[in-house]
């Protein structure tokens, strides 16, 4: 029921889907001139190696040995068959999940935090700045910086900083410096938009610092493809030729992309993105050029968006509250290569509880979106009498989200 592989089976190259997309990817545009951005616009924020990856047309990009050595501390992550969930659903579908919760930070995010810290360090950068909502990305980057002896400054949305102290404690344990954002308005609850603005301003104001982003961009999705590359091999070990359906939750698109992109070239594999109905970017947004941040400072990205000034209601799946989506994911949805669906959080927590009471692990509220869709697809397989192989991404554990479970169990969770 559980397929692990030895540490020498971590993929040695990332898979770049860009040359294999159904339609060419539209380039990011300069916000002033609306011309495609040139590398020099990005050099105050990112190292050259990451800018090259962002624009690369090579199918495989080698993973540096030093990065591999670190990933091997917890990778390959297990592929697990959810046999007890299958039994509870009485479904002929075979359900597998790829467990990214085993990383030190408890999610898939270190897969990109580690190479980002590595390339910055290699180009002489001593300090990284970033923003974080509930703290998942900030904790992954603090961990990565601690491994490369770099400073990490995290601007944390003030409301989370005050209400969710435990991820702040994780960041500080790894040596990160965490401040509430917006830094200059102590009565403002903050948003990802204000935190991005603070982090970018800080990075451009200092020669020794760069900025780091945890999702959305091409190079971030590239780094996450170790998930899908491993899962392909592990499914074969499990005796499956390939999945019929790959499902992932989608905030900015990095864990979904990491799992699904290595299957894009196979037309028989269906791909499904799951998002909250309160932030329905792919299912109800418009495909157009928009800013990546709410202050309107970043290049314009071609993506599904709810508008950069959209402020989603505060749901428990904080990692899925983003107004846009990765250009790569948006491209696949627009071309009809990937489907998207949305759920309200009550239905999502119902699925999380069913998973916890059959399989055991307590999923992150974000991850529970993928579980909701998996359960519904498995029920459909039962109704249609189809033996389907479903693979979903278990992006992280929910052990720092127990307040959300407490609210749900007490009947206090609002279905926004
Ligand atoms: C951050 C996060 C997400 C959402 O981000 P993506 O870039 O869409 O993957 C999902 N699950 C977990 C556990 C996260 O920490």
* Main sheet strand line-up: 1-4-5-15-10-11-14
* Proportion of beta-strand residues: 15-25%
Helices, by number, come to 17
Structural class: alpha/beta
Number of structural units classed as domains: 2
Instruction: Please count the beta strands (DSSP E, at least 2 residues each).
Output: 15
Ions, cofactors and other bound molecules: pyridoxal-5'-phosphate
CATH architecture annotation name of the largest domain: 3-Layer(aba) Sandwich
- Stretches with pLDDT under 50, minimum 5 residues: none
- Average pLDDT confidence is 95
Distance between the termini: 36 Å
What overall form do the CA principal axes indicate?
globular
- Tell me about the largest β-sheet: 7 strands, mixed
CATH topology of the largest domain: Rossmann fold
- Percent of residues in helices: 25-40%
CATH class of the largest domain: Alpha Beta
Radius of gyration: 20 Å
What does this protein structure show overall?
The protein has helices spanning 39-42, 48-54, 65-71, 83-89, 110-122, 136-147, 158-163, 165-173, 192-205, 218-224, 226-237, 254-260, 281-284, 327-334, 345-358, 365-383, 402-409, and strands spanning 2-3, 13-15, 60-62, 79-81, 94-99, 127-132, 151-157, 177-181, 209-211, 245-249, 270-276, 286-291, 300-305, 338-343, 389-394. β10, α12 and β11 form a beta-alpha-beta unit. α3 packs antiparallel against α5, α6 packs parallel to α8 and α11 (226-237) packs across α12. The chain has 2 domains: 15-26 and 42-64 and 109-218, Rossmann fold (3-Layer(aba) Sandwich), CATH 3.40.50; 74-107 and 219-409, Rossmann fold, CATH 3.40.50.1100. By secondary structure, it is an alpha/beta fold. The radius of gyration is 20 Å and the shape is globular. It has a 7-stranded mixed β-sheet, with helices on both faces. It has a 4-stranded parallel β-sheet with strand order 8-7-6-9, with helices on both faces. Strands 2-3 form a two-stranded antiparallel sheet. The chain contains 17 helices and 15 strands. Pyridoxal-5'-phosphate binds at residues 107, 109, 136, 215, 249-256, 319-320, 364, 366-367, 395-396.
